[in-house]
Design a protein that fits this description.
Largest sheet: 7 strands, mixed
Low-confidence stretches: none
Distance between the termini: 40 Å
Shape: elongated
Oligomer: single chain
Structural class: mainly beta
Mean pLDDT: 97
Length: 121
Amino acid sequence: QVQLVESGGGLVQAGGSLILSCAASGNIIHIKEMGWYRQAPGKQREMVATITTGGTTIYADSVKGRFTVSRDGAKNTMYLQTNSLRPEDSAVYYCNALVLTDPLGRYNDYWGQGTQVTVSS
């Protein structure tokens, strides 16, 4: 019912930047919250940044001051501006969204397939 497609990942040198995008499509009535998560090999998936409909943001301590999450409600698209990238930022970055698809229903959680970010030292 809902598809999330990430883009913008790639290989970048330490200190560089990337802009990740996540486009949501499908039977969407309302998106309450969107977020970026990441998972490195051998590690658990962790929250990177989240943003609500009202624009409230939360960041992981490890990315504060370097990453900025934003959202275009009209396009159901979320972005992650990543600056001053470090090798430890290397991971698959996943998009998550809390979406209402049925006016009489509840919000459900959806995930994208992920986009690889690799930061070389």
